[in-house]
């Protein structure tokens, strides 16, 4: 959904607007509100971020944030999961985590919702890749596949028992089936 706003749009003007639920994003001088997460999306998002954090947080390798606003490269987006290497997590002068993340994630993960445009999701991932993100994922719960976009903009589709490429330095081995099996209780 595109939200009507006074033209011309600017990132600065967008950032002054009140937050919306679900979150709105600013990309290519357009404001779009993300779709409301539904069951499959919510389950994959919470399970996957917890799975990543279990492997990386105690070792201070990285951290997976859900629904974190990231503002960089003239855009402000809210990936479903944004993974930051530990040393790149923005911090306040006192060492606490910053509220504003004015940088790209190292790994961006998006989960398609029903009737959500894959092209818009891919545009968000490509914006991240073009601005320094190393790896992007687009999970499609309906088709049960995962598209992986690497920093060289190559796109690979993973299905079934294939192990999916993860961010370098993170010791995780996951197949597409393992990820989508999280949808079953």
Tally of distinct domains: 1
Based on Cα principal axes, name the global outline.
Answer: globular
CATH architecture: Alpha-Beta Complex
Largest beta sheet: what is the strand line-up?
3-6-7-8-9-10
CATH class: Alpha Beta
Q: What do the pLDDT scores average to?
A: 94
What integer value in Å does the Rg equal?
16 Å
Contiguous uncertain segments of 5+ residues:
1-8
What pattern of helices and strands is seen along the backbone?
A: HEEHEEEEEHEEEH
Would you report the number of β strands?
A: 10
Strand content: 15-25%
**What is the makeup of the main sheet?**
6 strands, mixed
Question: Would you give the CATH topology?
Answer: tt1808, chain A
Task: Tell me the distance between the termini.
Answer: 32 Å
Overall structural class, as computed from helix and strand content, comes to: alpha+beta
- What's the helical proportion of residues? 10-25%
Number of helices: 4
Assigned CATH superfamily: tt1808, chain A
Question: How would you portray this structure in words?
Answer:
- The protein is of the alpha+beta class.
- It has a single domain, classed as Alpha-Beta Complex (tt1808, chain A).
- 23% of the residues lie in helices and 25% in strands.
- The chain has helices spanning 11-16, 39-56, 118-130, 176-181, and strands spanning 24-27, 30-33, 62-66, 70-72, 75-77, 81-85, 107-111, 135-140, 145-150, 155-159.
- It has a six-stranded mixed sheet, sandwiched between helices. A two-stranded antiparallel sheet has the order 1-2. The chain has a two-stranded antiparallel sheet with strand order 4-5.
- The radius of gyration is 16 Å and the shape is globular.
- The two termini are 32 Å apart.
């Amino acid at each position: 959904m595109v939200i009507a706003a006074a033209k011309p749009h600017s990132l600065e003007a967008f950032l002054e607007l009140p937050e919306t639920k679900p979150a709105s994003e600013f990309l290519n001088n357009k404001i779009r509100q993300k779709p409301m997460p539904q069951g499959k999306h919510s389950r994959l998002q919470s399970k996957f971020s917890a799975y990543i954090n279990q492997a990386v947080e105690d070792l201070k390798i990285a951290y997976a944030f859900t629904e974190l606003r990231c503002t960089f490269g003239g855009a402000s987006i809210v990936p479903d999961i944004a993974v930051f290497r530990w040393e790149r997590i923005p911090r306040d002068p006192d060492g606490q985590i910053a509220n504003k993340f004015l940088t790209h994630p190292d790994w961006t993960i998006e989960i398609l919702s029903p009737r959500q445009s894959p092209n818009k999701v891919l545009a968000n991932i490509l914006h991240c890749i073009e601005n320094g993100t190393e790896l992007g994922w687009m999970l499609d719960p309906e088709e049960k596949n995962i598209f992986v976009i690497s920093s060289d903009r190559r796109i690979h589709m993973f299905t079934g028992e294939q192990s999916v490429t993860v961010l370098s330095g993170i010791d995780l081995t996951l197949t597409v089936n393992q990820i989508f099996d999280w949808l079953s209780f």
